[in-house]
Amino acid sequence: MKSELVAVVYAFYSATIVINIVVAAMQYWTERGRAKKLVMIYWVSILMMSVANGAFREIGFPMALVAATGTVISQALLGSVLAEVVEVPIDMRPPLLQFLGTVAGAGVLARLGAPFVIYESVLVVGCVSPYPYVALRCLRSRKPPMTTVEKMFFGTALLMTLHYFDYPYFRPRPELYLVGSGIAFALFHILSILMPMMVVEHTLRQRNAQLEVEVQRRANQLTSAEERLWEAKKLASLGRMAGGVAHELNTPLSIIALHADHVRADAEHGRLTRERIFSHVSGIHQVIERISKITEVLRRLAREGAGVYRRIDLRLVLDERLAGYAAQTEEAGIAFTRHLETGPWPVLGDPTELSLLVAHLLDNAIDAVAHLEQKWIRVTGARRDAELELAVEDSGSIPAEVAARIMEPFFTTKPIGQGSGLGLSISKAIAESHGGTLFLDQASATTRLVLRLPVAAKE
């Protein structure tokens, strides 16, 4: 009766292992990976060991050697699964060499007539060694802490390793062998649950790592593309600047060349009088002054040799500058209003540069409304906490495609010869050199340029 019960338990035990093989094979087929492959091979080795162990009816060294060989293979695979999921490289040669040593020792003991429990115990020591060896290495080398599932697997596999030590005593006794098979079945059942969970965790970690690498790669590509785009924009701006400089300088240079041609023609025809020489020299001098103004504008744009800033009252600078524009706008039929908050506006800066900045804003506003039916310009200013805000608003409007480029050097919508396109770019450079900002208020329905400067700390 006991032998029949053992056969039933053994058949049920083997069927469970077969189910685990099928499940592991399906997982491996769905998405192949080394960890899933090791799990599948592990259950196949367990089945082969179970079948081989059940085929021996007589207790002896051949049966012990077959059981030990199957056990060392399954333990090595169990350790390989753990090492794979925790990503620790393992060299299996030391425990396998130890197993061969115990096989030799157990063979000698069997030849000398030692009982089964003695030489089988020696074999068990050797055949179970791969998993403890791997587990110890994983504990020492694992950098991130183990997950809960990995810890449960680690403990269950260790219990399975300890369970093999009862085999030399339980195997010759059918009543105890039934208990041992029940313990093994329970542990294998737990492992069959933990292994897929652990492998899924490992797969998710790998995917996350791949996603991080891919995201970083894409981010690097975007950064590289942005850098190339920025370089292209800089080259385009440089091209526009070069074109603007060429346009601004070609006209005065042509005038100089024309004066030179006249001087040569007068000399050839004997008309080179003192008065004509002075006339040509005066014309050339005026053109040189024009070129000097252009180069001065470029120098300011590049901010070469900026002076040392001092504490000034911006309100006084504004009052002086705005007073001159009141009469100019009145003559042009432009309604000019100003609303500036009273009190001092202390800033660290150069009054000449800041006055030039305001002049550029007002000149642009006057030019913008000159052809409109409704002509008005409004200047407002106030102190806001640690900033001073000055706004120059006019009745005109700027298209979106133009608004994106109005601060670019040499960009202008004025007719040829009426604007260099440097006013706002210089103003923006001056604002930034004073630690402030100059921008177009996109929320305003009309053209509104806003200057913000930091308030100077008290001395």
Topology:
Blueprint: H1 2-30, H2 34-55, H3 61-85, H4 93-111, H5 116-127, H6 130-141, H7 148-163, H8 167-170, H9 174-268, H10 274-302, E1 310-313, H11 314-331, E2 335-340, E3 346-349, H12 351-369, E4 376-384, E5 387-394, H13 400-403, H14 423-433, E6 437-440, E7 447-454
Parallel strand pairs: 2-4
Antiparallel strand pairs: 1-3, 4-5, 5-7, 6-7
Helix pairs in contact: 1-2, 1-9, 2-3, 3-5, 3-6, 3-7, 4-5, 7-9, 9-10, 10-14, 11-12, 12-14
Task: Describe this protein's structure.
- The chain is an alpha+beta fold and 459 residues long.
- The chain has helices at 2-30, 34-55, 61-85, 93-111, 116-127, 130-141, 148-163, 167-170, 174-268, 274-302, 314-331, 351-369, 400-403, 423-433, and strands spanning 310-313, 335-340, 346-349, 376-384, 387-394, 437-440, 447-454.
- It has a five-stranded mixed beta sheet. The protein has a two-stranded antiparallel ribbon with strand order 1-3.
- A hairpin with a 2-residue loop joins β4 (376-384) and β5 (387-394).
- α1 (2-30) packs parallel to α9 (174-268).
- The chain is rod-shaped.
- Residues 415-420 have low confidence and may be disordered.
